[in-house]
Amino acid sequence: MNEFIALANRMADAEGEIVRKYYRQPFDVHSKEDESPVTIADRTVEKRLREIIEAERPADGIFGEEFGVKKSESGLTWVLDPIDGTKPFITGRPTFGTLIALCEEETPILGVIDQPIIKDRWLGTKGQPTTHNNQPVKTRRCKTLKESVGSSTSPMMFARYGEFDFIRRWRESCDYIVWGGDCITYGLLANGNLDVIIEAEMKPYDYLAHVPIIEGAGGMVCDFEGRPLTLGSGDHVIALGDEALWDEIKGLIEG
């Protein structure tokens, strides 16, 4: 695992050099087929990360947001989101980050959230304590949903599922919800600043890095059925700082 940690950190260092070059600078913004935005920074970062993996671990697979899938010959797959939160990046808000995950078969065993502008880096590995800037972190205990602080990127994530009633129930059941923040909120949950994250319309590269990070800090990450997240999971994600909240969250989902 130490070899993988060192490689992931080198990848994050290389990504940071590229991101800082483009941050708050003029560049073209293009629309992908799903109408989500993409920039030269997204593509340059993923290209560089793929080059590093190919040079050091050529038998490993790669699943990236921008350049697709390279099949694994080793049973290991690197999952990359070069800029999670492209819209904040475009508008100069430092709430985006780069996500790097390593999966053994379908299961995430290593995750990195890196924010190179404000220099936040979370690292989680299966069976080891999570660190934030090399310091161990823990989620906070929160036994009831009423006292919890929630977060989600946007209520519009739930629009196509007709789940606005679920959002209302969640808002009425917790202390308050903070909207926005993208991947950084998962790191903050690992630090104990938040208690619940619920999101939809997610892809594996949006969430697999978070799994070892939050679990290594004492939390829980699952889908809406309570199942662990893997490369084959769907697009609904729940992250809890305290697993004791699951029964109440399940009740909210079931209405």
Task: Describe this protein's structure.
This protein has 255 residues and is of the alpha+beta class. The chain folds into two domains: 2-136, 2-Layer Sandwich (Fructose-1,6-Bisphosphatase, Chain A, domain 1), CATH 3.30.540; 145-254, 3-Layer(aba) Sandwich (D-Maltodextrin-Binding Protein, domain 2), CATH 3.40.190.80. It contains eight helices and 15 strands. The chain has helices at residues 2-22, 40-56, 86-90, 164-173, 184-191, 204-207, 210-216, 246-254; strands spanning 29-31, 37-39, 61-64, 68-70, 76-84, 97-104, 107-115, 120-125, 131-132, 135-136, 149-152, 176-179, 196-199, 220-222, 237-240. Strands 4-3-5-6-7-8-9-10 form an eight-stranded mixed β-sheet, with helices on both faces. A hairpin with a 2-residue loop joins strand 6 (97-104) and strand 7. Helix 1 packs antiparallel against helix 2 and helix 5 runs parallel beside helix 7. The longest helix has 21 residues, at 2-22. The termini are far apart.
